[in-house]
Amino acid sequence: MLKWSHTLVLCLSSLIIISHTNAQGTDLGGGIVTRTNVKYMADLTLDVKDMTQSFGNSDLVLDIYDNGRNAQQPSGLKFKLKELSDLMSNKGITEATPTYLFQLYGLAEESTDLNKVAQQFSYANNNVRVAITGGKDHAPQATLVFTLWMYAAHVLYEGIEQCQKMTEADNPELLNLGGGGIDEFIALWIGSGETHAGTDGFGLYALTQKAASRFDGGYIGGEAIANNAIKLLYHEGSQYLSVNGACTKDVSDTPKLLYSVASRIMSIMYIPLIQMLIDSILSQDAEMTVLYATAIIPQATQCRVTTYNRLREHLLTGIPRFDKTEIILRDIQDIYACFGLMCEDVGAYMNMPEGINFPFCTIAKSDATMAGYRPTSDVLPVAQIDLDIAQMRILTKLGNFKYAKYWFKYGRNSPVQRDSDNDLHSFYSLSDLSVASSRKNAEDIYLDFVAYFNDVNYAQGIIMGALEGTGKWGLKSIEQRSAVATESSAFLVVYLHMIAQINDAVNQCKNEKSEGEYDLTHPWDEVAALVIGSLEGIQEGGATDGRDGQLIWGLNTRRGFQFQTLNDQGYSKTNSDLIDALWAGRGEIDALDCDRLESTANNIKRLTLIPLLQSVVRYAVLNEGLEATSTREDLALGETYALAVLPIIDAVDENSGEVIRENMIHNDNLKPVSAGAQAVADAVGTAAEALGIRCSHLGSTSQADPCRNIVSSSSASSQMSLLFPSSIGLVASIWYMLL
């Protein structure tokens, strides 16, 4: 993530020279002069200073926190540290900014009960007050990491949202952009009276300086790399807002550009919290460990469920388990990539205590192993599209569709490769994938989907309808809208791109003009990334918790248990076959055995259909007893999985397709699964055979068996090459066609 900062630091002086400043701006030192007057926000750091210097007088410290002392708003009213928490919680859950909402969700132990989540609104003030009244000398640090840090993240997103509103408004001049969130953020980060590159301040900038001092390679010219990067990003965001017509219909891309800046700033903001947590653990300081764990571990709910739960168990359920230090450190490293960080961004801890074996950081590497498959090229940005889906799932399950739409439209976790330093930073997005021309590389499958929906951009329409409250599911329950938005992203959008990428890998092999190992292996590594994703971990078989994986691999994990199709090692047989096929394909590419690679590719296409077919049967069982008016997500899931396979099934078995359609596509006026779950299972089993999949590979449940009335054809698998003929000619990598 910060690998670009060393290049950008060379441009810092030129950025300052061309930056447009306002006579009403605030000079924060170190080359930072804001466009707008945000002194009152910067002065909150002076309150933290006074709290520090008043240690020993708890009443005075509490008075400073509650009532303020140094920060005065333009209105003349005091700006108080205590009220920052109220300003965030007053938005409610469905309007809360994302980082704040992830924190509440983590503190509520992943509950989607809005009342339970709302009980966490006062967590910042509560933690600070407990520290103050308990006479703890870390009360000012608690104020920084619970109150100022979170409010700084909050104002970034508030600025983006206000810019978006102005972009959509006919009269944007009637709306107040303020500092666009960027000015407010940098004022909160640096604060007043800060010494450039110093460690003697009292704000977040100073905390970051102190944190960097504990880790190797943490400085550029005396300034923490994280602080330097944040200042550079501030200048970038300020320039976007300085463009004439910014945040109007004339410059409609301003919200997207600000969102990119904010996303990268958020990644950097995590660095000092992670570094201070590691330092506290290795120092075996229980109070500081709990403080920083409370600040950062709830954020890990954006990442792997298993990692978050293990970190919470070891650090937040009583006295920290320092006897599990090596496991804890490994789990902390596991969340780096999810936060947009690489191992080198956090750095190596200095002055390691004796007896501690600090694990070598490998998980956040760009070529990290995925469920036992080790890519030879950098496909982490491709794999991390699953994080967009996982984070959208949290936001939408809590009814926060406003910010989930940003995730869908602009992306969050898959950075686009930049060919030069002059290229803008952006992310691959599910929205872009849903309309990309590269979908055509899926050939007949793509044509089948377009014909079925009679809409070239079918997936985008379905997902945006769920997010915006329009279309078929727009007025349904939060659970149903969430299910449509997230599962359609995974199995209508990403799945089709996986098929397209498989074809591309085969064609690259056959293309005589391909030069070098990278040209041949990278497309195949992307296939693995789109099958597995980044959330399965490095171990063979992938994640053990079925909630981790968001793509086909994760769906196989869930269905393998439900349909009794696990192997002797306890994970999905289909996934075992997939990993074998991925490694086989890699060997065939190395040997330039392109005909055999094509056969392997067709096998992967067949294997990836299995969990989707199983899902249709599962939700036929779950929905059989429901009414059409039910608000349960199962109705939406049943339809979504059906839509993921119906265009493919209709191409080979219209009768089976009609049975599935009549029973699984929701109709407000008809009882779901009216013919019964077994009738749907029969249709799925028949369709599987027609698709070249042995029915026995689907397994069964106690409620429905796809093979009950099927006599499996011995030639089923041989039909696969007819279902998925290989494409001809050179097809560019799907990810780079989006540039």
TrEMBL record:
Keyword field: Signal
Tree of life domain: Eukaryota
Signal sequence range: 1-23
Cited Pfam families: Fea1
Matching InterPro entries: HCR1 (IPR011643)
Full protein name: Uncharacterized protein
Origin species: Cylindrotheca closterium
Species lineage: Eukaryota, Sar, Stramenopiles, Ochrophyta, Bacillariophyta
